[in-house]
Amino acid sequence: MNLVEEQITIEGEVLALTSLRAMYWEKEQALVASDLHIGKSAHFRRHGIPISAKVQQKDLQRLEFLVSHYQAKKLIVVGDLFHAEVNTDMADFKHWRNQNLDLEIILIKGNHDRLKDDIYEAYQISCCQKELLMPPFQFIHEPKASRQFSISGHLHPGVRIKQKGRPQIKLPCYEVSATQLILPAFSEFTGLAMSRAKKGKQFYAFTETSFFEF
């Protein structure tokens, strides 16, 4: 599996943005990801839309690679770890979790994280209702103004790239400003919200092989 990094320093902390849709915080040995939407493909199948289970399996394989590559001790999920109800996709997640029981998982609950508390307990997931404070950062699901530098998700940010004589392409990105970092959706089974250029914002778009800074 190919991994490309773009290292940035925020508040004195080295953060590695990766082409595999997650960030690594070196000091805390923590992977940070958003919007995994575990169970989304089964949710769609339940409603008559034929989405392959391989979509989620591919996401979990990518997560496994990242945990192994960085030897991460923590996984911080800034919302929407799960998509909806308990469904057949949960078996894949259960298998993955059983292979990574030494990994501490902390979830800042998002708008889709509505499972009963005993489900999170069964998977050994620590939950925060609104935020997680780990100086110098505040981890939240939905981006909002804050006195602390915040790391969030929810928006599934992306950018359009125009190519001369060729169709424009859409790429997922990390959106960074003076006060916040918005992560791309970890799951590939999500749409993209096109970000607009604005003074003070930087966009780190990526493909499987490259980063593009705007």
Characterization of the model:
The structure is a single chain. The protein has 214 residues and is of the alpha/beta class. It has one domain (5-213): Purple Acid Phosphatase, chain A, domain 2, CATH 3.60.21. The chain has helices at residues 40-46, 54-70, 90-98, 117-122; strands spanning 5-10, 13-18, 23-25, 30-33, 74-77, 104-108, 125-128, 132-134, 137-139, 149-152, 157-163, 166-176, 180-182, 193-194, 202-206, 211-213. Strands 8, 9, 10, 11, 12, 13, 14, 15 and 16 form a nine-stranded mixed sheet that branches. Strand 15 and strand 16 (211-213) form a beta hairpin.
Mean pLDDT: 91
Shape: globular
Oligomer: single chain
Q: Low-confidence segments, ≥5 residues, pLDDT <50?
A: none
| Main β sheet profile | 9 strands, mixed
Whole-number count of domains:
1
Q: What is the annotated CATH architecture?
A: 4-Layer Sandwich
Helix content range:
10-25%
Distance between the termini: 26 Å
Number of strands: 16
Indicate the proportion of strand residues. 25-35%
CATH topology description = Purple Acid Phosphatase, chain A, domain 2
Task: Give the CATH class.
Answer: Alpha Beta
Query: Structural class, from secondary structure content?
Result: alpha/beta
Domain Calcineurin-like phosphoesterase: 31-122
Keywords: Endonuclease, Hydrolase, Ligase, Nuclease
GO molecular function: endonuclease activity; hydrolase activity; ligase activity
EC number: 3.1.-.-
